[in-house]
Known about the structure:
By secondary structure, this protein is an alpha+beta fold. It has 2 domains: 5-136, Fructose-1,6-Bisphosphatase, Chain A, domain 1 (2-Layer Sandwich), CATH 3.30.540; 145-293, D-Maltodextrin-Binding Protein, domain 2 (3-Layer(aba) Sandwich), CATH 3.40.190.80. The chain has helices at 5-19, 30-52, 61-65, 86-91, 160-175, 187-195, 209-221, 247-256; strands spanning 57-60, 77-84, 97-104, 107-115, 120-125, 130-132, 135-136, 149-151, 180-182, 201-205, 225-227, 240-244, 271-272, 275-276. The chain has a 7-stranded mixed sheet, sandwiched between helices. The chain has a 5-stranded mixed sheet with strand order 9-8-10-12-11, sandwiched between helices. A two-stranded antiparallel ribbon has the order 13-14. The N and C termini lie far apart (46 Å). The structure holds adenosine-2'-monophosphate and magnesium ion (2 copies). One magnesium ion is lined by residues 38, 61, 81, 83-84, 86. Adenosine-2'-monophosphate binds at residues 61, 81, 83-86, 153-156, 185-187, 207-208, 211, 280. Keywords: Hydrolase, Magnesium, Metal-binding. InterPro entries: IMPase (IPR033942), Inositol_monoP_metal-BS (IPR020583), Inositol_monoPase_Li-sen (IPR020552), Inositol_monophosphatase-like (IPR000760), Inositol_monophosphatase_CS (IPR020550).
Amino acid sequence: MADWTDCLNFGISVAKRAGEQKEVKLKSSPADLVTETDQRVEKILISAISTRYPQHRFIGEESVAAGERLQLTDSPTWIIDPIDGTVNFVHRFPFVAISIAFAVNKQTEFGIVYSCVEDKLFHAQRGRGAFLNGEPLHVSGQEDISRCVVVTEIGAERDDLALSTLTSNIFRLLKLPVHGVRALGTAAVDMCQVAMGGADAYYHIGMHCWDIAASAIIVREAGGVVTDTDGGWFDVMSRRVIAASSSAVANRIAQVIRPFPCRRDDEEPLQSGGQLTADRKCAGPLMKSDDTNKTH
Ligand SMILES: Nc1ncnc2c1ncn2[C@@H]1O[C@H](CO)[C@@H](O)[C@H]1OP(=O)(O)O
Ligand SMILES: [Mg+2]
Ligand SMILES: [Mg+2]
């Protein structure tokens, strides 16, 4: 079996170096500022990694936003979110992360999440455990949903359908009841909270592979479970994830939440007048046919 430890160690060093890039130049508008900083960090990461590993491929949030095709092949591939928590970053809400996953044959070999403001470095390598600043990490092991803190994200969709699904899912969880529902503004750090036992579960529909790939392996290696939002097999391109302290909690959340259909990350982008449209939009019917079986 190939040993990717050299890549992991290099990934950790570039993530920490990129996390020091706190200087932000004000451009013409807040939107420009965000784009410029996100793009700059992604360029720093990709240029350092590709110089060392010229054969490797990349899936980067900003490269995809600039029109690059999103395709996970069997080649060694780095999946990068240069700034996870861009809205936090702009508002100085203190949870912002660099998320880097590395996959070979479509299997994640390691994940790195550097929560820059907190200076917390989470990492995990397949079969070798999960760590926070070098110390082993463990999920809470909680099995009782009524004793759980559950994390999710509000996301950016503001249409009625998205908002009603989002709020009704939170409503259902609160009515179980769970101990609390939280949202930190970065999916990567949300899931690392599950890995370290600060939260017992995370779920969301609509994140992208770069938001969740690294923290998914960190949760698993910390002893947690990662599933699809229907409780089935987790597919990193599906944009559907539950990360939990136990199978019991993951299954209970899968029973409670209503699905919100999204275009897969590896689906062909929608074409509109020759221009690529934002692939962040969800599409399709609101409910799956089996939705009537869900717990209300
Ligand atoms: N269209 C979108 N707009 C804002 N945040 C999004 C998003 N799609 C995914 N996210 C992610 O959702 C969380 C915030 O709710 C962050 O992890 C954020 O990642 P980002 O900061 O890298 O965009
Ligand atoms: Mg992100
Ligand atoms: Mg980002």
